[in-house]
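pls design
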């Protein structure tokens, strides 16, 4: 009887461990699920906050629209570890930093995108994602 209980506990523990490892993979998405490779962007603005979290970091930037209003955009970056290997950390992008972000717009038209690179005021450029860089002729998206 004790052997059956031990086997049940071991199997339950193994199943739980497997489920906990597989769950984050389900939450991860492909680039093409959310972003449009046919809609590159280049936006300039001021960092408002950064979230260095797995599986993707996010940086939020206030962008001035043509009418003078401000829209807060969210940009998906790579993982914190991948960014750190490139020299980019949360401390590199404190709130108030003026930046230029290049990447691809969200498919659903919301104010977020996939960032391929970010340029700091001193001209230093960091690759922020795995997709190819957006063309330099990228048009500025219409303001909401």
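designed seq:
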């Amino acid at each position: 009887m004790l052997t059956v209980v031990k086997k049940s506990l071991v199997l339950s523990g193994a199943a739980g461990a497997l489920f906990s490892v597989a769950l984050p993979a389900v939450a991860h998405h492909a680039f093409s699920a959310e972003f449009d490779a046919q809609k590159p962007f280049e936006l300039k603005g001021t960092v408002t906050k950064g979230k260095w979290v797995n599986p993707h970091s996010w940086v939020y930037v206030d962008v001035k629209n043509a009418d003078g209003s401000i829209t807060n955009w969210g940009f998906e970056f790579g993982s914190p570890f991948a960014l750190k290997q490139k020299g980019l950390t949360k401390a590199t992008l404190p709130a108030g930093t003026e930046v230029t972000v290049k990447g691809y717009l969200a498919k659903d038209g919301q104010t977020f995108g996939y960032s391929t690179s970010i340029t700091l005021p001193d001209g230093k450029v960091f690759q922020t994602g795995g997709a190819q860089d957006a063309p330099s002729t990228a048009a500025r998206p219409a303001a909401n």
